[in-house]
Amino acid sequence: MLNNWHTMIKSKQVDQVSTLLADNVTLFSPVIHTPIQGKKMVSMYLTAAFHTFLNGTFNYHREFSGDNSAVLEFSLNIQGIEINGIDMITWNDENKITEFKVMIRPYKALNMINDQMTAMLATLQQQAVK
Amino acid sequence: MLNNWHTMIKSKQVDQVSTLLADNVTLFSPVIHTPIQGKKMVSMYLTAAFHTFLNGTFNYHREFSGDNSAVLEFSLNIQGIEINGIDMITWNDENKITEFKVMIRPYKALNMINDQMTAMLATLQQQAVK
What we know:
Two copies of one chain form a homodimer.
Chain A: H1 2-11, E1 21-28, E2 36-37, H2 39-53, E3 59-66, E4 69-78, E5 81-91, E6 97-105, H3 107-129
Parallel strand pairs in A: 1-6
Antiparallel strand pairs in A: 1-2, 3-4, 4-5, 5-6
Helix pairs in contact in A: 2-3
């Protein structure tokens, strides 16, 4: 699973993301308590995240292993704000992602990401309506 | 290292925390970008964190392994707010913690923790001055 994930991130073929997700995938955002459910909604959220995060400064620099799961630590910089966070990814025996959880620090970075993601999701939703 | 950490948390003998820290330990808070340096300052910060977090609802429920390091996921509840986060702990060959990083989600929980920690650190600093 992780190889597929890293290959997608490096190739920036992020429109492939839904092929990596289980139908019943759940996403836990760093901002909102209520989880985001299902392949369609999670794909849209992750696509918005890729547009926001993969700005040329993003990199994964540490990895931790669990059972069918991993924590990937990342850092990036947006408009001079240093952002540090983790993706906590869980997958099933078919190698499809069942849970994706994101946490971000520090406070200023979470605010920045919240603003950028809100704007990006609004853009994607407008495109979907057209 | 992790066994010592879990034993301390379970026994609530959190005044022992400095014995688990390397002299040059660095703490990365979920709120502030600038790291907190050195055993004395990090001990004070972690003591405040224990007073804030270990309220009877705190528990570690997932663990991820790295090289001389681990990610421990935790959850707790303060005044009805559900708080989810990680401790990312790194230690040296002498089994002393060299880096301690905390991330918290969602937004509302980070606000809650920030308020509580600010109040607790003020109390501890007043006690230290007396």
